[in-house]
Amino acid sequence: MKNLKGKVAVVTGGSRDIGRAISVKLASEGAKVCINYLHNEAAAAQTLEMVKQFGGEAILVKADVTRAEEVKAMFETVAKAFGPRIDILVNNAGGILGRKGIEEQDEEWFQKLIDLNFKSCWLCTRDVLPYMKEGGSIVNISSQAARDGGGPGSSIYACGKAAMLCHTRAMAKELGPRGIRVNAVCPGMINTYFHDKFTPPEGRENLHRSAPLRREGEAEEVAGLVCFLASGESPYVTGTGIDINGGCLFS
Q1: How far is it, in rounded angstroms, from Cα 93 to Cα 23?
Q2: Which residues are designated catalytic?
Q3: pLDDT tens across 232-249, in order?
Q4: What number of other Cβ atoms are within 10 A of residue 123's Cβ?
Q5: What span, in angstroms and rounded, lies between the C-alpha atoms of 63 and 78?
Q6: Inter-residue contact 13 to 19 (CB < 8 Å)
């Protein structure tokens, strides 16, 4: 059954890892998907090919979602390709960029992380609204770091993700009367490039020993939860931040 047949979805940072899995999952359920990317066109093209392999429909849109003019242009492109209505927005773009203790951080570093992890969410939410009507769904990809402050050297990343979580609640209240639901997903350690690059092997090994489920999560598992929140299967769910971390943190 295609739960999202006829729907139009935008996934920011959709070229790889969790964003790729979300794009493919939404398309597999019948949605027409805008796969947003910025730097890695080759990875975005691979995601598009995965969608096309099972007959899904998608487009690639290069845009820096921390820049207002590029966000507006992205939604205009989607409207030209798929029509004037956008039903689903997944604010997935984000990242840690590196690990720095507070004494190593400067204002440029602070601003980059806040822009990437929160301003992007704020801009995209604001600018999708002219295209989103009753029944629309916004899903924000926050993080376990928003709950626990993050790992070593990731304080500003954690703060950006916490701001996203607060914005989820605020927008659920503001947009609920318009029939638009807003929810967040808070992944823990997921087997992605993010942790390949920024998490030391001993940290991952410790999770395998201590997590109740004794493993990392997979991007496809996050995508399944996002698809549920984006679909009509969750019509009375809004303002939530749902943990998906194998039991590493309860909230």
Answers
A1: 13
A2: 157
A3: 999 999 999 999 988 767
A4: 20
A5: 12
A6: yes
Structure tokens at 157: 């990343």
Give me the phi and psi of 239, to 5 degrees please.
75, 15
Is the pLDDT at 9 greater than 60? The verdict is: yes
With a threshold of 0.85, does the pTM exceed it?
yes
Domain architecture of the chain: domains with CATH = 8-244 (3.40.50.720)
Q: What type of residue is 177?
A: P
Q: What is the pLDDT of residues 59-83, one digit of tens each?
A: 999 999 999 999 999 999 999 999 9
For the chain, what is the HEC assignment? Answer: CCCCCCCEEEECCCCCHHHHHHHHHHHHCCCEEEEEECCCHHHHHHHHHHHHHCCCEEEEEECCCCCHHHHHHHHHHHHHHHCCCCCEEEECCCCCCCCCCHHHCCHHHHHHHHHHHHHHHHHHHHHHHHHCCCCCEEEEECCCHHHHCCCCCCHHHHHHHHHHHHHHHHHHHHHHHHCCEEEEEEECCECCHHHHHHCCHHHHHHHHHHCCCCCCECHHHHHHHHHHHHCCCCCCCCCCEEEECCCCCCC
Cα dihedral angle (223, 24, 141, 137), rounded to 10 degrees?
Answer: -90
Chain Cα centroid distance, residue 167: 14
The answer to whether the CB of 213 falls within 8 A of the CB of 246 is yes
For the record, the structure tokens of 166 come out as 């607060």
